[in-house]
């Protein structure tokens, strides 16, 4: 069977596009030179640094200017503070970085299997979802255990 190059097995107009975004710069990355500092409880569930928030603002601006914001159907996010801050800051509506409602935003779904590896570093450990629900009420935590 010869392929013509223009034939596909799945119609492209029905295909979904997957965009992967890593979390913005986190407070734990300020300590990257000192591996022992990464084991500090002070970095538990590290939040974004000021540089990270600037990255989020830039990404949000880009997402809106290029029209991607209108095309996103779902945002899947790891249930770590810095990843959720990145997700709602970049893909959230005009709510000044917090996922306080689903107005003008795609649905957000926290998925445990998207988390970074577990280990000795406190920055990769997270709070209970009950705490996150008050911070990010627009995120669905049904696929995040604990």
Automatic annotation (TrEMBL):
Tree of life domain: Eukaryota
InterPro entries referenced in this protein's UniProt entry, alphabetically: His_PPase_superfam, PGM_Phosphatase
Gene Ontology molecular-function annotations: phosphatase activity
A GO-annotated cellular component: cytoplasm
Identification of the protein by name: Phosphoglycerate mutase-like protein
Biological source species: Papaver atlanticum
């Amino acid at each position: 069977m010869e392929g013509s190059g223009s034939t596909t097995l799945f119609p492209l107009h029905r295909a979904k596009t997957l965009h992967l975004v890593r979390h913005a710069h986190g407070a734990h990355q300020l300590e990257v030179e000192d591996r022992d500092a990464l084991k500090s409880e002070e970095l538990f569930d590290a939040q974004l640094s000021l540089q990270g928030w600037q990255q989020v603002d830039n990404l949000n601006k880009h997402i809106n200017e290029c029209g991607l914001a209108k095309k996103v159907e779902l945002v899947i996010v790891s249930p770590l503070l810095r990843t959720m801050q990145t997700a709602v800051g970049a893909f959230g509506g005009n709510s000044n970085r917090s996922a306080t409602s689903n107005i003008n935003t795609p649905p957000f779904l926290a998925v445990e299997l998207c988390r970074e590896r577990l280990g000795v570093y406190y920055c990769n450990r997270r709070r209970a979802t009950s705490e996150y629900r008050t911070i990010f009420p627009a995120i669905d935590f049904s696929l995040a255990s604990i």
